[in-house]
Fold 5-oxoprolinase subunit A.
Amino acid sequence: MYKIDLNCDLGESFGPYQLVNQEEILKYVTSANVACGFHSGDPSVIRETVQLALKHGVKIGAHPGLPDLVGFGRREMKISPQEAYDMVVYQIGALQGVLSTFNEKLQHVKPHGALYNMAAKDKALAEAIAKAIYDISPSLILFGLSESELTKAGEKVGLPTAHEVFADRTYQADGSLTSRLQKDALITDTNLSINQVIKMVKESKALSQQNTEVNLRAHTVCLHGDGAHAIMFARKIKETLEQKNIAVSSVQNWKDLI
């Protein structure tokens, strides 16, 4: 039977600014990537997000990003591998501190935004991030772009590594995500998004913008919670996957991650 984890970036509010209805979307996902304060989130938001995730039985991961609140962590910054290592360690530590007050453990780590995309292509950054995660705990699962430098680094260092695919993003022929600066970066048609996910799960392929098939592995699917119809989409994709005999389950329950 096919299986997939559904993850969503959460805890990305800040102070009085609320980005998404977390209570509702947590009903449909199995893993939550919680912002740790650099690109978004604050101590109270982190605690509230953790409480909601635990209430709905959703596994929790750290979502470390670049220190860029204004740019929401989506603008590239020139950083060294050592700086990447330090940023990731620091942000994981923040979330682990909150989790310890609930006697809960971290499931995974997924870099955010520009840091994620930079590490997908930059071997040195990818290896620094993977090492940071491994040094904290070799049992933490690394979420990275499927078949990227980041997933290669995770596997190389010995981390359980989940190859991530995207429901609402288009792909380039080299397997990278289409830049958000391009108008065709996002898939807004719900049926097209769901069909893309089913193809990635069942065939391990995605159709690129160049009309070529990209080979990939699909362990976890990212659902962006800040879209106009995010909750409706999360509900529909979970229902459709189950109708197609694709089990929706947290990767923590899997025994076959590399």
Observations:
- The chain has a mean pLDDT of 94.
